[in-house]
């Protein structure tokens, strides 16, 4: 029975470590996206900012994306 208890404790420690790493990566991702978009960098203790920023820049902001698409040139046509 002690073996199972040891294995369970190791698994729980690994799970906690994985969760901490996941939260850290989500926070870093939110900071990178905020810096690219020009928004203020979210605070470390604000978990709401991590869940609201699920889309990469350009996918969640249709208005700014349409303006950039309209200003792009059409691709060159091939002549045969």
Description of the structure:
The protein has 80 residues and is an all-alpha fold. It has a domain of 41 residues. It contains three helices and no strands. The longest helix is centred in the N-terminal third of the chain and has 36 residues. About 8% of the residues have low confidence.
Structural class: mainly alpha
Unreliable stretches (pLDDT < 50, length at least 5) are 48-53
Largest sheet: none
Say how many strands there are: 0
Radius of gyration: 22 Å
- Binned, the helix content reads 55-70%
Q: Which of globular, elongated, flat, extended, rod-shaped describes the shape?
A: elongated
Number of discrete helical segments: 3
What's the N-to-C terminus distance?
77 Å
> Helices and strands, in N-to-C order?
HHH
Strand proportion, as a percent range, falls in under 5%
Q: Residue-averaged pLDDT, rounded?
A: 75
Gist of the model:
This protein is mainly alpha-helical. Helices cover 62% and strands 0% of the residues.
What does the secondary structure layout of this molecule look like, with pairings?
Layout: H1 2-37, H2 48-52, H3 62-70
């Amino acid at each position: 029975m002690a073996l199972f208890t040891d294995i369970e404790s190791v698994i729980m420690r690994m799970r906690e470590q994985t969760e901490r790493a996941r939260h850290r990566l989500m926070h870093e991702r939110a900071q990178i996206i905020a810096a690219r978009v020009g928004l203020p960098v979210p605070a470390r203790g604000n978990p709401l900012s991590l869940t609201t920023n699920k889309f990469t820049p350009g996918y969640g902001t249709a208005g700014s994306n349409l303006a950039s698409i309209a200003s792009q040139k059409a691709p060159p046509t091939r002549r045969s």
